[in-house]
Design a protein that fits this description.
heterodimer, A: mainly beta, 6-stranded mixed beta sheet, 5-stranded antiparallel beta sheet, 59% strand, B: mainly beta, 7-stranded mixed beta sheet, 0% helix
Amino acid sequence: GENVEQHPSTLSVQEGDSAVIKCTYSDSASNYFPWYKQELGKGPQLIIDIRSNVGEKKDQRIAVTLNKTAKHFSLHITETQPEDSAVYFCARIECGNKLVFGAGTILRVKS
Amino acid sequence: NAGVTQTPKFRILKIGQSMTLQCTQDMNHNYMYWYRQDPGMGLKLIYYSVGAGITDKGEVPNGYNVSRSTTEDFPLRLELAAPSQTSVYFCASTFSGNTEAFFGQGTRLTVV
C-alpha cells in the first residue's frame, strides 16, 4: 500500500508543554486514521482515531485533526506528562483492516 | 482475558535454522496479522488472515509462512533464518466490523 509519512522522528518537550506529530498520506480513498502508542517492551495500543467525515476529535489531553484536502492529519498532546513518553505511530487502514504505519515518533517528556 | 499472547518473547537463531513464532488470541477475533518492526521503519505487514483456513501475503512476506487452522491461533514460520529477519515481531487481531487492532507484546528475534 501507499506509505504514510510521519514527522518528526524524535520530539523532546518539557513537561507541561504541548507536542504535535504530523502525518501525510497520498491515497485519496483512505478514510480512517488511527494513532497508536507503544511503550517500551510492549505492543502498540490504540489511543485515538478519526474518520474522514470528521475534522477533529478530542479525548482529554489528546486530540487528532484531519485535513482531507491536504491529506494530512496530526496528533496533539497538551499538558504533557512523563508517562506520555513513548513511540507514537500514525496509520491508515486498507481493506481487511490492514494497517499501514508511519515510521514512528519517539516522544520524550522531560521533567 | 489474556488478549493476544505471543511466545517466545526472545530468541536467538543461527543462520539457516528454522522456528515458529506462536500467536494465540482469546477474543474470538476473525482477523489476525503478523507485523515486523525494524528501527526507524515502523511496522510492516508480513501476512494476515481473515478467518480460519484463509491467509494472504502482506507487504514483506518473503522468507515466512503462516497457517490458520483455528480461529485462535496464527503461527508464523521461518524456514531458513537469515540476518535480515532480525527484528521484533508483533501479532495482532481484530473483528472484521471493528477497526481497533489488539497487539501482543512482541517477539524479539536475532539471527546470527
